[in-house]
Amino acid sequence: MIGRDNRHGPKIFVLVLDGDALPDALTALGASLATRADPADLAVMASPLEGLARRLLSLAPESEPEQALTHWQRDAEAARVTLEAAPDLPFITRECLSQDPQTALQTICPNWTISVPWDRSGVISSAPLPLGLAALLIAQNEECQTLADWLLARAEAPNEQRLNLGFGAAMSDWRKLCEMLQRAQMEEALARAGQKAAECRAARAEATAKTRETALARALLDGNPPLPVPGEQADGSNRTPFWQRLGQRAQKGES
Amino acid sequence: MSHRPRLFIDVQHGLCNRLRAMASGASIAQATGRELVVIWRPDHHCNARIGDLLDYDGPVIEDDVADLCRRFSSRVYNYMEIEEGAVYEEPVQAEAFPDGDIYVRSAYTLVSSHRDEAREDSFLRALRPAAPVRELLDQVPHPNPVAAHIRMATGPRFDHLSYEAPENWPAERHAEMLHWRERSQPEAFERRLDQLIEEGKADRVFLAADLAATYERFGARYGNRLVHLPRQLYDRSARQLQYALADLLLLIAADRLLASTWSSFSDMAQRLARPGRSFEQSGQDF
After folding, report:
1. Which pLDDT does position B166 carry in this prediction?
2. What is the DSSP letter of B117?
3. Do B60 and A201 touch (CB under 8 A)?
4. Nearest 5°: phi and psi at B215?
5. What is the CATH number of domain B132-281?
6. C-alpha to C-alpha distances, B14 to A4, A139, B129, B195, nearest whole angstrom
7. Which residues from B are below 8 Å from A160, CB to CB?
8. Among A123, A125, A106, which Cα is nearest to A114's?
9. Beta strands B75-78 and B205-209: pairing type?
10. Chain A closest CA to B138's CA: distance in Å?
């Protein structure tokens, strides 16, 4: 049984459970997250990620043995990109996952009420998981794959927004991951633009109801006494906007 | 797709270029049941946000999300000739992508069987200038019997300005523009204004120009008969563009317009005036 509070939960759920693919994953995520307005709406669930990323960040490359530098620098840069892009990402450790997935979910979504009857066979609750836009899974071992499959199967995200990268993700998979995140970013921005537009329209409707006419109309008409318009009250109480009036003048053939 | 298919109109170049492209996009969107989303990114041609100029109440994208809108659209039309892959005046066939978004990048009126000039005009007339623009209107008397729009600042003397640089247009289009700018010099307007004054038809003249020297010259010649919006800016800043939009409204409101040929600004000033308003174009009528 899973309850939830979507107002505070992540819209995108990313599960990263792979050490080898980590640099690519982090690079992809970092690039996608760099322009996100609200990084808190994304959760990264990873086994080696949290420890690796934070440890790498604390190390100066020159302090490492020379033969390890290239690999570590690559990882460090990937981790830096991701963490700087989204410093508040919730991270879940391998320990958390292996011990108790319910705790893991609760950590990601502290405002949800979660009760997952867990067993390793994957036969568990049929209730959907509140994974809003996407569930992206990268798993390398069987244990993680079981959890990944379980989560993905129950995600509320539409099918086209579910991506199971599974074992050994290829570059095309990462591109798909990036595309999904970017598409989600675009839709969120458009939703915000739509909301702002709706607010503007509401404010305008209220202002128009009060003044009956725009400031522009008044400004221009102050020096341009309006021609009679059919249906207009003498006191101007139903005076039409300036542009509309221009049109009405035109319909009357005046110039 | 859970939302209505969209028509993104990525407006380019200066103020009136943007307005006419926007109106075209709105007309096509309305005819095809699409949601209009305006992509308005300030740049060197128009360094103003849409909110600096208009109380626009439709969805607007002003940042790099526009690149994602373009990338994920089913079809992209690009009228900006100097850009790779652009096809100027390619017909916008919205019906070919009934469920997909369409992205159009243009500084020009669009070509489409769904376009309707009356709908475009209605869209433009429904636009509301922002408060700073409306305040500018109070600074000069209006309407005026004659208004003149003198657009001449293109050519070698102005190539150093990024928004006037020849690289903004294909060579032949730039040459055409230069041809008409040379016919929009102050002398031509003065000759015509002098005639109108002699005929008693220009007691007051409203002037909108793109150079300080033009205002000085006309001020010296016509004295108190001349009205204009005094300014210190002659660039593409947000404040200057507020002056420009106020200029446009005052040009629209005048009884007669002396216009600069090959200027989208002059074209818009006539287009939104009441039908039958006297209209004369430099190099053609005077």
Report:
1. 85
2. H
3. no
4. -65, -40
5. 3.40.50.11350
6. 49, 52, 16, 32
7. none
8. A106
9. unpaired
10. 6
